[in-house]
From TrEMBL, chain A:
This is Spore germination protein. The keyword Transcription regulation does not apply. It comes from Anaerocolumna aminovalerica. It comes from the Bacteria. It holds the Pfam family GerA. GO terms for cellular component: membrane. The chain crosses the membrane at residues 298-320, 340-359, 371-388, 394-411, 423-449. The lineage of its organism: Bacteria, Bacillati, Bacillota, Clostridia, Lachnospirales. Belongs to the GerABKA family. One of its GO terms (biological process) is spore germination. Keywords: Membrane, Transmembrane, Transmembrane helix. InterPro entries: Spore_Ger, UPF0353/GerABKA_families.
UniProtKB/TrEMBL annotation, chain B:
One of its GO terms (cellular component) is membrane. Residues 394-560 form the Spore germination protein N-terminal domain. This is Spore germination protein (Amino acid permease)/germination protein, Ger(X)C family. Belongs to the amino acid-polyamine-organocation (APC) superfamily. Spore germination protein (SGP) (TC 2.A.3.9) family. It is found in: Membrane. Residues 576-741 form the Spore germination GerAC-like C-terminal domain. Its main location: membrane. It comes from the Bacteria. Keywords: Germination, Membrane, Transmembrane, Transmembrane helix, Transport. GO terms for biological process: spore germination. It is a multi-pass membrane protein. The lineage of its organism: Bacteria, Bacillati, Bacillota, Clostridia, Lachnospirales.
Length: 512, 742
């Protein structure tokens, strides 16, 4: 840490009236910055003043800066007064609405690193910030991880300002508040807390603000890091926040009373609070007819159950309770396993690991190679392993079904938690059969029942839904028709739970 | 915002009560009701539920007066010392309940799901997971129960409703035959299982009531009423099904007789071979909730009386103590007996008196630590894992099991000879068929335990009866009441052998039938099962299982009829029925006779009646019975028991009538009417003759007429109670047949 910084990496050197002192400080701070652009100018006519320009190359719109600011400073400063020169420059030289005064060196440096231009003026212990950021980014791309058949195809981007726009475009309400803060003493990552005032619970907004202030870290690079630093249930595999790349999902969450966290440089935003149920909801559900959405939801819940339960259940039934199977199936299982050198448990774990490795390798490998790996892996596991009598065909079917089911859950982080829990159930089932399986499920249920996300029980609306006096169950396993979903979920403020009023209902009320 | 304020909703409260009332009582209530009130156990359950309602009302009234937590109220009004004593009494009671529940379920799981696993491992895990739930607090427990409600109670309820079809009404009727005092005692005994209602004293302050226009106590009471009605209905269903299927004696056999019936209930669909393991697994969920409840309340009261800051600190010593008490070597029956006595003479009186005592004193005067749990859980889990890894698990790979497909049992001199038919796994995988002799294992021994041991000494695979299809008894075995009794006792206590396994009698010995294994497709086990389930059942033959024989063994006056098989070329032929009374073959019916007995029993669908076939000539007419039912009216005639027995139904003339309907419909109708008269006359004569020959001459109640009086004529049943033979001799009867032909 240099002498100009404190222990939290905050610049302690002040802005002074002496321009040279400020220049010296900037020089020290930006020493060995190849991409810093600094220039000292003397502007004015009869009265002149020294100014000092600082910005980071390729982070500003150079054309705009030169046309709208530099040109004016060099050519239109003849009437420079003897006093109030700072205000004169601000009014006459800068043709931009987005300017502001900066009073500390720390702030000034932060803006420079954020892509703004800072103009130091001699004789003033403040600087002028001109916002003309222009940084390369991916722009708005198609959602890749949360693909929806119907609905918006846009996804969030790494640029926070784009993400803000994506939300603003969807919610044109003055109550949509965006409170920004920075996290990371070195990364100075901007984090935006977005919520609709009057709908979101103020205590939830306060709580997340408190949690963000509760730690000091050198840097965060993705919303995933912020999630882990602010969550309460550190030892749970289940996420306390819902991450999404879909702006429509985030906007829908905001309207429901949830809070959105946007982290600069992260294409995933965080929604809070969250419940287990919200992880089973996809954007399409709201856009599709309720019957179709309900059927798909049931499939997802079934898929989640299969993901967690099937391998454990297979082990328990085959090794301990074969009476559950029909005789033909039991004998067929027994016959298929004749000559397999491994125990059922080892066989299942082996195949699970093989699948997980394929999955991981498939993610890391570049696109074309990934598909080749899929074919090779599929052949090796599916065919060669069975032909070589290393595993029984039934285990291949079980693992394949488990793998497919895991992808029916629309949230990767949540599905991954189930993938982890699966091993606990496999181990317990291996030692204690169906009893072990029940033990495993009981542990899972107790854990989930004890989880809360910002005060909201994780198992809502399957448990504790009656406490709020409203039924959240209408948008759970069964998604009721949209016109029946008159209430906002439990996330909303108690006096803002109503979200749909049909006009004829109102007329009826007025008549009465 | 929700917070950790230990508040629960009324709905959660109701579900907690249902679980508290049903989890343990559901298992033992049929036995308790039968023990105290016999056939009037039904009334005892209703009475017990009513007493429980009154008790709940009193408890809720007391909570209204308290205005605060029961223990705090006690401290404020009775002082610390008395509160300490009262708290200790509650702790003892809850501790006893917890030990009983853990012990009982350890035993149940050990006998049903994990036969070879050390019960201590089962119990410690049960306690650990329950402790984990208890450590999460009351709110979390309420949420767990709320979620489990639909997973456990609803499927069980559906299962029980479906099970009603299999209950035999004769086992339940007549009602009101026991002394009123016995019914009252039964009601009190049933109420003992509902005693957990007193916990409302502790839970009431946790309940959050939204409605403001109704008082909190009234709301709580209405939800308790709902919970008691649900619990009561489930207990009644369990009683009806258990007693209806197992009979009085069968129900008394085991504490947890409820689980014995699960094997016997047939569910539509047939996706799952045996659903008992599945239902037991569902039930297990409720056990965790109740044991976690006990642990929670014990720690809660202990915290209050010992002034401990964190309730979770207490959970570890509590589970260790419960575990220690649960593994004391004591027969589960003895445990049940002591627990019953404690509850009857101390537990329940204390539940009534203590709250009143505290309230009276009050009136007179007026005038987390989660880390500790996690650490302990970790230590114990490590211990368990170590134990498991050192060989405590009883896992046997599926290919290492020899799934017996069929079993034949003969008696040879003093020894029992058993034939186990094994599946041909090589044929299943499409490889060459194994030598048929290798698939048949023949063992001799003095008893079945010795035979099993001999098997273990010579085979590399585990003997597994979970997929057995059929049991064939040899004639010598069937006539030897003592040996057959031993066999049935062995099967009764061998949980893995399903009670719904088909049973047959070989014409001479079982080996003859079992030896056909290589000749019939799919092996003899599958062949016999299919023979029954595809063909025989469609020609009016009733399916008879080993469970029926066990049921007959345990009942005083029940006749069971088992099909007799005879080898016929390379297959088997059903040649009649063997009549068993109390584990003994007492008579054999020819195939023709068995048809008429089946019609008289109401199972005659698709049976063919060959009219005028006395002299082995080609029958003139053949009638196929489409449906048949029987009814019997019993009445007294000048002190003599009389019966009008009527067989009615419809049939189809298959032979003996020309298709003249288009030209001469009237003539055709007349002809059918004549055949109908002949058919009814023949059925009447045959059944009367069979009644005369078998009932009167051999004194065998061939179609269990005495049992029918239980719901037809209560006085007659009472008059001849335990005098079945006399009833058969005294009974005069008229048989009528009314089969409508078309």
């Amino acid at each position: 840490m240099s002498v100009l910084h404190d222990e939290q990496n905050k610049i302690i050197a002040p802005l002074t009236r002496n321009l040279q002192e400020n220049i010296d400080a900037v020089d020290v701070l930006f020493k060995d910055w190849a991409d810093i652009v600094k220039r000292k100018l003397t502007v004015g006519g009869s009265n002149t003043v020294d100014i000092y320009f600082v910005y980071v190359d390729n982070m500003v719109d150079k054309a705009l800066l030169e046309e709208d600011t530099l040109w004016n400073l060099i050519h239109w400063m003849d009437d420079m007064p003897a006093e109030n020169q700072f205000d004169y420059i601000k009014d006459k030289a800068v043709i931009s609405a987005d300017i502001s005064d900066v009073y500390t060196l720390h702030e000034a440096v932060k803006f420079i690193m954020g892509g703004d231009t800072i103009i130091f003026v001699d004789g003033y212990d403040k600087a002028l910030k001109v916002s003309n950021r222009h940084m390369e980014n991916r722009g708005v791309q198609k959602a890749e991880n949360e693909v929806a058949v119907r609905g918006s195809k846009e996804s969030f981007s790494e640029a926070l300002f784009i993400n803000r726009v994506l939300l603003r475009r969807r919610i044109k309400d003055t109550n949509l508040k965006i409170v920004q803060t920075t996290v990371g003493t070195r990364t100075q990552t901007e984090v935006a807390i977005v919520y609709i005032e009057g709908v979101a619970k103020p205590e939830v907004v306060e709580e997340i603000q408190r949690r963000i202030k509760n730690f000091v870290v050198d840097g965060i690079f993705d919303s995933g890091m912020l999630e882990q630093l602010t969550e309460r249930n550190v030892y749970s595999p289940f996420p306390e926040f819902q991450a999404t790349e879909r702006p429509d999902k985030a906007a829908s969450g905001l309207v429901e009373g949830r809070v959105v966290l946007i982290v600069d440089n992260s294409p995933m935003v965080l929604l809070l609070p969250t419940t287990m149920n919200s992880f089973f909801q996809a954007s399409d559900d709201t856009y599709s007819r309720w019957e179709v959405a309900t059927m798909i939801r049931i499939l997802r819940f079934l898929g989640a159950f299969i993901t967690v339960a099937l391998p454990g259940l297979y082990i328990a039934v085959v090794n301990y309770q074969p009476e559950l199977l029909s005789s033909a199936l039991a004998l067929s299982f027994a016959a298929a396993r004749e000559g397999v050198p491994f125990s059922v448990v080892f066989e299942v774990i082996l195949m699970e690991f093989a699948f997980e490795m394929l999955l991981e390798a498939g993610i890391r490998l570049p696109g074309p190679m990934g598909s080749t790996l899929g074919i090779v892996g599929g052949l090796v596991i599916g065919d060669a392993a069975v032909s070589a009598n290393l595993v029984s065909p039934m285990v291949v079917i079980i693992i394949a079904m488990t793998a497919i089911s895991a992808f029916t859950v629309p949230n990767e982080a949540f599905a991954a938690a189930f993938r982890v829990i699966r091993y606990l159930i496999i181990i317990l089932s291996a030692f204690l059969g169906l009893y072990g399986f029940v033990l495993g499920f009981m542990i899972l249920l107790i854990h989930l029942a004890g989880l809360k996300s910002f005060g909201i029980p994780y198992l809502l609306p399957f448990a504790a839904s009656g406490m709020g006096g409203k039924s959240d169950g209408r948008d759970a396993i069964i998604r009721f028709p949209l016109n029946k979903l008159t209430d906002r979920p439990i996330y909303a403020k108690d006096d803002a739970r109503i979200r749909l009023v049909r006009n004829h209902d109102e007329k009826k009320k007025q008549k009465q | 915002m929700f917070s950790d304020n230990e508040k629960i909703s009324l709905r959660q409260f109701k579900r907690i009560i249902v679980f508290d009332l049903f989890s343990i009582s559901g298992l033992i209530i049929p036995r308790i009701a039968v023990e105290f009130a016999g056939r009037d156990g039904f009334s005892a359950i209703i009475l017990g539920t009513i007493i429980a309602l009154i008790y709940a009302a009193i408890i809720i009234l007391i909570t209204k007066k308290l205005n605060e937590n029961f223990m705090d109220y006690s401290v404020h009004n009775a002082g610390r010392f008395i509160t300490f004593i009262i708290g200790t009494l509650y702790i003892i009671k809850l501790f006893a309940c917890c030990v009983f529940a853990a012990r009982l379920f350890g035993e149940v799981i050990n006998e049903t799901l994990l036969v070879d696993t050390d019960p201590r491992i089962i119990i410690i895990l049960l306690l650990l997971i329950s402790a984990y739930a208890a450590s999460k607090g009351f709110e979390v427990r309420a949420r767990i129960v709320e979620v489990l409600y639909f997973i456990v109670i609803v499927p069980l309820l559906i299962f029980l409703i479906l099970g009603l079809r299999d209950a035999d009404i004769s086992n339940l009727m007549p009602i009101f035959t026991e002394r009123p005092l016995d019914i009252v005692k039964g009601g009190y005994a049933v109420f003992l299982t509902f005693s957990l209602l007193e916990l409302i004293l502790f839970t009431a302050p946790f309940i959050e009531v939204n409605k403001t226009n109704v008082s909190k106590e009234r709301s709580i009471f209405s939800y308790v009423v709902q919970a008691l009605i649900i619990g009561g209905i489930m207990d009644l269903l369990l009683f009806v099904i258990t007693v209806g299927i197992l009979g009085m004696e069968g129900t008394k056999e085991k504490i947890w007789s409820t689980f014995s019936i699960i094997q016997l209930i047939k569910l539509p669909g047939g996706v799952i071979q045996r659903h008992d393991a599945l239902i037991i697994s569902l039930w297990m969920f409720s056990i965790f909730t109740i044991i976690s409840g006990f642990i929670y309340y014990i720690s809660y009261i202990s915290k209050k009386i010992f002034h401990v800051s964190t309730q979770n600190y207490l959970i570890i010593p509590i589970i260790l103590l419960v575990f220690g008490a649960s593994v004391i070597p004591m027969d589960v029956e003895k445990n049940y007996e002591y627990f019953g006595k404690y509850m009857m003479f101390i537990g329940i009186p204390q539940s009534i008196l203590l709250p009143l005592f505290i309230l009276l004193i009050g009136k007179l005067r007026k005038i987390s630590n989660a880390k500790a749990v996690a650490r302990s859980v970790l230590i114990l889990a490590t211990l368990f894992t170590t134990l498991s890894l050192t060989g405590c698990g009883d896992m046997t790979e599926i290919e290492d099991r020899n799934f017996v497909q069929a079993m034949g049992i003969d008696l040879e001199g003093e020894e029992i000879k058993v034939y186990y038919v094994m599946p041909d796994l090589e044929a299943i995988t499409g490889q060459s068929t194994k030598d048929s002799e290798k698939l048949l294992i023949e063992l001799k021994g003095k008893d079945f335990f010795e035979i099993e041991e001999k098997y273990q000494l010579q085979s590399s695979k585990r003997l597994d009866f979970r997929h057995i299809k059929a049991i064939v008894l040899g004639k010598d075995m069937a006539v030897n009441s003592k040996e057959l009794d031993k066999l049935l006792f062995y099967i009764e206590n061998k949980y893995e052998l399903a009670r719904n396994t088909l049973v047959f009698l070989g014409e001479t010995d079982a080996k003859e039938i079992i030896s056909l294994n290589s000749s019939v497709s799919g092996g003899i086990g599958q062949y016999l099962e299919r023979l029954y389930r595809i063909n025989l059942i469609n020609i009016g033959k009733k399916e008879v299982s080993i469970g029926d024989l066990i049921y007959g063994k345990n009942s005083d006056n029940l006749i069971i009829k088992v099909p007799i098989l005879k080898p016929h070329e390379k297959s088997v032929e059903n040649i009649g029925l063997a009549v068993f009374n109390k584990s003994k073959l007492v008579h054999e019916l020819s195939e023709k006779e068995s048809d008429y007995i089946n019609i008289a029993s109401g199972y005659g669908k698709n049976i063919r009646i060959y009219i005028n076939d006395e002299e082995e000539k080609e029958p003139e007419y053949v009638v196929r019975i489409i449906n048949v039912s029987r009814s019997a009216e019993f009445f007294w005639d000048n002190g003599i028991p009389r019966m009008t027995f009527k067989v009615s139904g419809s049939g189809l003339v298959e032979k003996g009538i020309k298709d003249t309907a288009n030209n001469y419909p009237a003539a055709n109708d007349k002809h059918i009417h004549e055949i109908q008269n002949l058919c009814n006359k023949q059925i009447t004569e045959k059944i009367t003759k069979l009644f005369d020959n078998i009932m009167k001459e051999k004194n065998i109640d061939i179609i269990n007429l005495y049992r029918m009086t239980s719901h037809k004529n209560k006085n007659m049943w009472l008059e001849y109670e335990e005098k079945t033979e006399q009833f058969i001799q005294d009974l005069e009867y008229t048989v009528e047949a009314d089969i409508k032909l078309k």
